[in-house]
Amino acid sequence: MTTAFDTVIAHARETAALEAVMTRLGWDQRTVMPHRGSAQRAEELAALEKVLHARRTDPRLADWLDAAKAPTPEGAAMLREIARTRDRHARVPDTLAAELARVTSTAQDIWADARRHDNVAAFLPALEQVVALRREEAAAIADGGDPYDALMQDYEPGASGADTAAMFDRMRPRLVALREAILGAPTPEPLRGDFAQDGQLRLARKLAEAFGYDFTAGRIDLTVHPFCAGHGADVRITTRVVETQPFNCLYSTIHEVGHAAYEQGVDPELALSPIGRGVSMGVHESQSRIYENQLGRSRAFTGWLFDAMRAEFGPLNLDDADAFHAAVNRVTPGYIRTEADEIHYNLHIMMRFDLERDLLQGKLDVTDLEEAWNTRFQADFGVAVDRPANGVLQDVHWSAGLFGYFPTYSLGNVYAGCLNRAMRADLPNLDTRVAQGDLRAATGWLHDRLQRFGALRDPRDTIKAACGFAPTEAPLLDYLETKFRAL
Amino acid sequence: MTTAFDTVIAHARETAALEAVMTRLGWDQRTVMPHRGSAQRAEELAALEKVLHARRTDPRLADWLDAAKAPTPEGAAMLREIARTRDRHARVPDTLAAELARVTSTAQDIWADARRHDNVAAFLPALEQVVALRREEAAAIADGGDPYDALMQDYEPGASGADTAAMFDRMRPRLVALREAILGAPTPEPLRGDFAQDGQLRLARKLAEAFGYDFTAGRIDLTVHPFCAGHGADVRITTRVVETQPFNCLYSTIHEVGHAAYEQGVDPELALSPIGRGVSMGVHESQSRIYENQLGRSRAFTGWLFDAMRAEFGPLNLDDADAFHAAVNRVTPGYIRTEADEIHYNLHIMMRFDLERDLLQGKLDVTDLEEAWNTRFQADFGVAVDRPANGVLQDVHWSAGLFGYFPTYSLGNVYAGCLNRAMRADLPNLDTRVAQGDLRAATGWLHDRLQRFGALRDPRDTIKAACGFAPTEAPLLDYLETKFRAL
Fold it and tell me: How distant is the Cα of A15 from the closest Cα of chain B, in angstroms?
């Protein structure tokens, strides 16, 4: 006999399959789609989004959910997730959702153009529209609550602006003090030279394998902005190559492999279920960050990488592994978030968080955004923004309507700090193996403790269950201080 | 005010957008999908197919179609196409459609395995099931009519088994006589050597450009079996490389460019409409064939290709353009349809047509198919089949349930013959330009006369409107006799 539980789960499974199609179209668009295909593609995405919206808000879901009895904790988590998604989508009128899709799609094109020409004024009317629509949407979801908190739930269920602000207030003084100490010391010599694309890609594949990327369930392609897309047995990553900056390709590959490992590592029993994927952006970022930073930028691993790079490219301008390690971990107050070191990265996020929260709460006008950005950047980074492309126009997020997303990057760093502490307590000799390019103990620990559970638990509970303690920012800050004071 | 016509066309447009997604998933699966992704992909395809089926048989369509008044001939053709699709899908019960999808998917895997091991017996039970289900489906569609004719409509609307049989009866004697005459003469020397993949692909891209493939609305990838997928501004082709047989890559590229030119060439005004694509498999094949054969294998073009090959690969074993032309057009009675020359190709089709029609009409049992195949092959080709992979197991079609599809290949040849006659009458000096690798007059003629209209007219009317005469097999046979008697 088919129970209400079976019915609602089967329905969700088909929805998940169609969401996987949507994800695949996104990969295709950014990776292999012919230039002229975009208008047609926009109609495909809109048609599929309409199908998905109808399924997520199917009127039968209410009855099914009322009648359904979950036979297991996994089943209960699936029902919770279906109810959450339904509630979120049902609160937003179709017309508003369609308008948002249309406006953010256009705004991204306008933003790209404005960035290319350093023309903030050209972007502001579009941003104005996006902010207005997202505020309207936030009001519909929040039901009287805080609009910024409402939007955060899409990326980090359970997070709040107040908690995040309090966390950032605790982080800031230690980060700033650390930053000042480092910038007062001599700057290490950077890696120099030309590193051919073929060699970079060969080494990137080697790194991906070392970090456990399953090529039978994925592939690597080249794009301007690296990303990871997909779930389960089809999780694809991309990378990019700058011939004079090989760390760009190598570390973005490790970063995306972290995301991919989470998706590839979810228990196959949960595939295409509402919990068969990473639970939140923050937890996702914890995986990409711990792969990239706490593991990939550790002294143990850079020692191995130093040899691997010389094997691939011949002698380097840095002639020992310590100098190489210092070059990998150079700290400089640059303009661009995506190129920031482990310390400045969080300062970038804090700034964006404050600005976007003010925008959403109506405390900052779009017209004043550039000035607010520039003032804040000067204060936090000690450098004046030289041009909008290096300032307020640098990120795609706001043009795409992604408000509430930025803090998940820092949450990911904080979670990675917790996981790193717990993992190293469990595996005291980890570095001996990492120094040989053998990451299996580390990735195996993350798989067993976290990745395989997908979205079974809330984000914070996911980290707590993996670490054995509730997440705080302290382990990250301790790790950063220990690492960078030694450098 | 929105009319019933607007409503039904808007609905069809979304359906077409979702069909384009389905096509893209097919491309992805055959070109870039990771090995382990197939189980997940099957669920994605099934979920999307269910959405499409529901849209094509939406109960509101009947009322809309009753009320809709087409403002133009294009609009009338769109309504006809919507009604035809609705009728066809509404006649087949959901359970049967789902069972067919499941069984043909499995049967294709079983077939691939059986072919690899030359094990006909392992394939027959699956084929038995496929034939039984397709007969059931044909009965549902045919409504008392001929089951084979019913299935043909999916690939060639308006075609019938009786017409096709009569056409083949007229073609056979002249083809057989021509074949005997050629096989009685000395065999030309083949092209020999190793042709590196890079060079083949470079030349393939050059050929694609020469034949008008628009790379801004498409791309070329490598697959085991070349194909073309997509409509409008996103039409992708694939090719393959056998280093010892460069004509394989070069002519399959030209062939797929023919298909792609039809889809890329449809008037953008018709994009995502029910007539915004090629009208039938036969007319599609007419484009791929005339590009590949009447143009690509002409003495004028092979002369240009001879020079292009020497420029790419250095000296060849054939030292003049006539010998090269003869090598391109070698006639040999091989086992494999996809490798057959212009003459034997049609004999392959006639044989499959008779066998599959007998299967569908219940005149031939699946258990007797291999013997029937081998007997017929010996009679038609004068050679005994050496192994099932070279015989009854060579084609994927039947395992996929594609009964009624094979004759469209020969119809394509026949239509190409007609188009070639009309085109050369209109453009008497065409070969002068073709000999310089300039195909624009030819492809322009095909675009203006045929490609841009998409599915505005029936298949036969499409050819008739382009040529100015009703299609018959005579121009093809005249062309073959003239060409091969000269060789």
Answer: 8
